[in-house]
């Protein structure tokens, strides 16, 4: 049995993340105070002749930058929330986005580092005082960091290389503290979505973050995925070796991080990886009954045989959500087939607009048609410029923006996170491929809408879509789709 302790890593000053409640509370509580100050200052700017749109954009940019900076100084829940907000960077022009990019880089790279003594204590708390008997070797040098823990390499007692994920001591209390504070400062969501019913949406976000503290549930979910994708030609999910307390031990995956593909991969490889990530996210709910909701680049590895390795199953949600098939049929069908009045009915029926609140249908329909462009052609390229146009169209702070009139059903929050994050990583990779066919393969309601669209426009339906529709029982989709 060999356990190697390397001591303190260069530049580290502490073995645990900052958990002082008063400091964390003060930083988060200061966000809405600063926001209110910017709004008050905006009144004076209007008096000096600046337009409401210019002032709103200025407030939005300053507030978002402040949010990222504060979250970058904190850890745990705050870091996770920052990952969710990172899509906002794509709403800005290249020059204006630089402060956000800098703050997000700090947020992603500033994870605390546990010192060897702290790692030993955390391992003992999780696996017991004789934890080292389970390992032939254990490397105390952190192999990778995360928002609420870090990963170490080891050799299990049977000789298998393993990854050991250890939660930061004290981070659970910090996260729960943060959640209480974030509930109090949820008014800041009005910067992005003025008409949203903030309280239940915030609660859905908080519930999802809190669930990621449960390593036992995460291990059970990973076991489900590993069994489903065993011997899959496209994907590898490492099996869980052990889980106790705040420690998870899984098989080690050796591969190229997708972050490296982002930096230096050839266009063909970038597109291939982007399509594989999309296939995994789209297939996960259908194949396992649980949707994979955290497809950011750090959770994927390209293995030497070309398959995609997938890690981190803390953010998964039961699939499908209630009425999902009807929602897709109604919203996508009305958008793709040009029926604005049906789009209004769909948005009100599925909780995207409050009763009595007007909706500007034409700009909303136009924005949705642009978002659904990948469904209109056999192949499509999603890149940063395309996604930036879509995000800016929805986020632009002008009074006529239809997005300001909408809210979001709380039950869809985890899936919204998955879709936004997937679009972000696909855009970073510059993914080009048969996106239409891939979506239709896993969402029969989309396949039915596209079949009708093709018929109306005298387009030949993709053979893959036609075959898929024949394989789905009629009771599994609405015959009046779209």
Explain what this protein looks like in three dimensions:
The chain is an alpha+beta fold and 482 residues long. It has two domains: 21-73 and 76-110 and 172-211, no CATH class; 254-482, no CATH class. It has helices spanning 21-47, 52-73, 77-85, 98-109, 116-127, 171-184, 198-211, 215-228, 258-264, 267-288, 324-336, 340-349, 361-371, 384-395, 413-429, 435-442, 444-456, 463-471, and strands at residues 2-4, 135-139, 144-145, 149-156, 161-167, 235-236, 240-244, 247-251, 256-257, 290-292, 300-302, 308-310, 316-318, 380-382, 431-433. The strands form four sheets. Strands 1, 2, 3, 4, 5, 7 and 8 form a seven-stranded mixed beta sheet that branches. A four-stranded mixed beta sheet has the order 6-12-11-9. The longest helix is centred in the N-terminal third of the chain and has 27 residues, at 21-47. The radius of gyration is 23 Å and the shape is globular.
Give the gist of this structure.
This protein has 482 residues and is α+β, with helices and mostly antiparallel strands. The protein is built from 18 helices and 15 strands.
Give the helix/strand class. Answer: alpha+beta
Tally of structural domains: 2
What is the CA-based Rg, rounded?
23 Å
Number of helices: 18
Contiguous uncertain segments of 5+ residues? 1-19, 474-482
Largest sheet: 7 strands, mixed
Q: What is the straight-line distance between the termini?
A: 64 Å
